[in-house]
């Protein structure tokens, strides 16, 4: 990736990390008008950055989060003594004569901080395979797939525009958003030879369609009573589940009112 593309991904990741805090903080300081203003500005900035990545840098299907979180266990550097042993050519493993099992030799046991419990060969194979998957280029998108990804990127802006036109109690913004999400997934379903990250992103988007059960006005009119009844039954009749379901019942109404939690 080029340096400008990395900067765009970084800014996009920062926006996704602070959007909920920005919404809640602005609502506390400037009220409802300030809350919707910051929502529109953040969604507009995210759409511009994503469209630049899609149309200018040919980034393909964009994942969320844009930058994969660092796995510190995989990135654990070699212990200095391990590096000395590697440079000196010492054998790091021992193969059992009868079992043929490969184990680490006692002379090459790393420190507790950098120790792992698999064989060195397994760890090296796993790291090389994951590095290869992470370094795979994005799948080239044709015209149909580019339109589908553009629909997915611009869907939040169209939803906010429809909210401003028809209001929050209307079914039209909910239906418009659902149609755009389903259309985008349908157009992308014909794409073959996706890499691992892109397949995981499409699965994530498909699962997120369940959020429409928690989005107003469907939640207010149909889902709320049924979901709370189910959680109450689980808390009353399934031992141990109440520790999870009762706080969830208290948290769900507050979660549902925050835009970036259920619409972002």
Describe this entry's structure for a reader.
Mean pLDDT is 85; it is low at 85-90. A hairpin with a 6-residue loop joins strand 1 (93-95) and strand 2 (102-104). This protein has helices at residues 3-56, 80-88, 120-134, 143-166, 171-188, 196-207, 218-237, 242-256, 259-262; strands spanning 93-95, 102-104. Strands 1-2 form a two-stranded antiparallel sheet. The chain is globular. It is an all-alpha fold and 264 residues long. It contains nine helices and two strands. It has two domains: 3-66 and 137-215, no CATH class; 216-263, no CATH class.
Largest sheet strand order: 1-2
Helix coverage percent of residues? 55-70%
Shape: globular
Unreliable stretches: 85-90
- Please give the number of β-strands: 2
User: C-alpha Rg, in Å?
Assistant: 24 Å
Number of helices: 9
| Averaged pLDDT | 85
Compute the number of structural domains. Answer: 2
The quaternary structure here is single chain
> Major sheet: size, sense and barrel closure?
2 strands, antiparallel
Cα distance, first to last residue? 26 Å
Q: Would you tell me the structural class of the helices and strands?
A: mainly alpha
List the helices and strands in order. HHEEHHHHHHH
Percent in strands: under 5%
